[in-house]
Amino acid sequence: MEALLPFVPYRFRPDRKPPYLRPWMVPQALWGRNLRALLIKADWDRIRKDAYDRSGSRCRVCGGRGPKWPVEADEGWQYDDTTRVQTLKGVISLCPDCHAVRHWGKTMSSGRQNEALAWMCEVNGWTRAEAQRCADDAMDQWHDRSRFQDWKCDISWAVKTYGVTPIEEGDAIAEERNQSFVQKAREQYGSQGNHSSFINHLFYES
Ligand SMILES: [Zn+2]
Q1: Separation of CA 43 and ligand 1 centre (Å)
Q2: In which domain of life is the source organism classified (predicted)?
């Protein structure tokens, strides 16, 4: 069993406890700053395909596969709220349903939060109220972290593990993507009052 553990989805591992799946939102200052922006396409493709191969193209959380394509690559970021550094810890395969929970802001903005809440209940064995509380906490945390513009991004895990070199124009590409995502969020939420926690920062603090 020990030897098999790395291949068992988190949801079924005896050494793991719920939540197996919860929203994990990227602070606004870091939107767009990811391996896709910071590496050449061939390097990013190699890293994400390696994640798919390691899991047999199954979701690392639930073991499932999506109906149109089986899995997507999810970057596992750790956040240090004191130094404000976002550190890449690994890249894993997630099915589209689990991935949608992780990227909660994007899921909310496309109106799919009810399905995502239901999936969080299913995977974690939670009630709807528990899932909603977890999502609300994630949103509060996102809001706290998004008050700061000086977040740094550390992708040395990818450099060490795969021998890749970040591209020179990566910072500029990431910055451009960040601006475009922020603009889209403003356009989408600017006239609505019911997503105030999502946009307070965008309009009233920056
Ligand atoms: Zn899954």
Answers
A1: 25
A2: Bacteria
pLDDT tens across the length of the chain (206 residues): 677 777 789 999 988 999 999 999 999 999 999 999 999 999 999 999 999 999 999 999 999 999 999 999 999 999 999 999 999 999 999 999 999 999 998 898 888 999 999 999 999 999 999 999 999 999 999 999 999 999 999 999 999 999 999 999 999 999 999 999 888 888 887 655 445 555 555 544 44
CA 149 to ligand 1 center in whole angstroms? 32
From the CA of 63, how far away is ligand 1's center (Å)? 6
Instruction: Give distance in angstroms: CA of 127 to centre of ligand 1.
Output: 18
Beta bridge partners of residue 72, listed in sequence order: 94
Coil, strand or helix: which one is 54?
Answer: helix
**Alpha helix segments (H runs only) across the chain:** 35-38, 41-54, 96-102, 104-109, 113-124, 128-145, 156-162, 170-189, 196-200
- Helices then strands (H, E): number in the chain? 9, 3
Neighbours of ion ligand 1 (CB under 5 A): 59, 61-62, 64, 95, 98
